[in-house]
Amino acid sequence: MRRITRIATVGVASAALALTATACGNKTSSDAAGSDSKEAGAAIAYDIGGRGDQSFNDAAFAGLSKAETDLKIKGSAAEPSEGESDADKVQRLTELARAGNNPVIGVGFAYAPAIKKVAPKFPKITFGIIDDSSVTGKNIANMVFNEEQGSYLAGVAAAKVTKSKTVGFIGGVETPLIKKFEAGFVQGVKETDPSVKVLSQYLTQPPNFDGFSKPDLGKAAAQGQLDKKADVVYAAAGLAGSGSIEATSQAGKWAVGVDSDQYSQKGLAAYKDQILTSVTKDVADSVFNLIKSVQDGSPQTGEVRYGLDKDGVGLADSNPAYTKMTDVVAAVDKAKKGIVDGKITVKTTP
Q1: pLDDT at position 186
Q2: Whole-number mean pLDDT of the chain?
Q3: pLDDT tens, 202-233?
Q4: What DSSP line would sit under 77-124, residue for residue?
Q5: In whole angstroms, how far apart are CA 224 and each of 162, 208, 287?
Q6: Scanning 77, 116, 251, 321, which has the fewest C-beta atoms within 10 Å of its C-beta?
Q7: What percent of the chain has pLDDT over 90?
Q8: Is the peptide bond preceding residue 350 cis, with omega within 30 degrees of 0?
Q9: Which residues contact 261 (CB under 8 A, 6 or more apart)?
């Protein structure tokens, strides 16, 4: 069942601990054009995997929590249900909008059809969608990222640290978005060391999105690549990626995280020593920035792009083992400069 959560106005860490479920529709409004309710706040609707994925959804939650603390607003978050339809997403966004939330943010491209239907009914409310630019409107902000650029840097690092000359890429679901991760990673590997072999695998095909939500699938895929001598595995698979990290860590090989700095995620603490780095997307700031723009009276609309040039994507350096690899860090820094300066053009398809 869908769950809508009210988050107390506290710091990020405390909010994560205090997150509890309350009844659906704890705020109501019949004004389809928007609400002037004093209880109005901001809301996010989670993607597949929901809160606690240690990755994409948790990054969005961090942005909402920061907005509560810094901007003194109230936040709500709604969980997805397994195997839900677009109609379920339409209902969820509608409930959040009727409750007076502004903005209402769909976390993930799967919300595109729902936002296309709901946004025109609430012209006074700003709707944000992360990872999609296909649906547009006067009150829609498309928060998109150059994932291929961060993934290129991961490919450079993987090519530099591999000893077996074999590395792996695991995509959660074979969609154009995840293919951007694969394309950048493979290009980074090959342009650093053409002799390195890249094993690529997708966990599921649309319309089956289990590849973003089931850790066992990621674990099995990673084990298969490890069996083929891969000693660095990069998974862009949401919650399923945690299974890949577990398998890779237990084998004493290097894992590359995604979306959040997974070395710093408490839920992955047991494996962090083997998380070499993570390809980060500043989802947290994208959520915060949209909320702030609404609060400031100048809502973001249209495409809002986050690239390597503005640190909207990047490569985490939290693991001390990574920072000690000075030759790897130097190669990554050189590649970053090349991309930002326009000397390296990163592909968006494999």
Answers
A1: 98
A2: 89
A3: 999 999 999 999 999 999 999 999 999 999 99
A4: EEE--TT--HHHHHHHHHHHHHTT-SSEEE-SGGGHHHHHHHGGG-TT
A5: 17, 21, 36
A6: 321
A7: 85
A8: no
A9: 278, 280, 316, 318
Question: 278, 261 in Cβ contact below 8 A?
Answer: yes
Q: How far is CA 175 from the centre of its chain?
A: 14
Residue 12 corresponds to which amino acid?
V
Residue type, 54: Q
What's residue 40's pLDDT?
58
- DSSP at 344: S
Containing 47, the helix (H) or strand (E) segment is none
> Is 163 exposed, middle or buried (CB count within 10 Å of its CB: 0-12, 13-18, 19+)?
exposed
Q: Could you tell me how many residues make up the chain? A: 350
Q: What is the pLDDT of residues 256-302, one digit of tens each?
A: 999 999 999 999 999 999 999 999 999 999 999 999 999 999 999 99
Token couple for 37: 């309710």
Peptide bond into 207 cis (omega under 30): yes
- The predicted structure's pLDDT at residue 15: 34
C-alpha dist (Å) from residue 324 to 163, 274, 279: 17, 14, 18
Residues 172, 235: Cα–Cα separation, whole Å: 8
Cβ–Cβ < 8 Å for 141, 302: yes
- Tell whether the torsion through CA atoms of 113, 46, 143 and 64 is positive or negative: positive
Closest C-alpha among 178, 34, 52 to residue 99: 34
**What letter represents residue 74's amino acid?**
K
Strand order in the sheet with 275-281: 197-204, 166-173, 232-236, 254-259, 275-281, 313-315
Q: What is the DSSP letter of 41?
A: -
- Nearest of 281, 328, 343, 289 to residue 307 by alpha carbon: 281
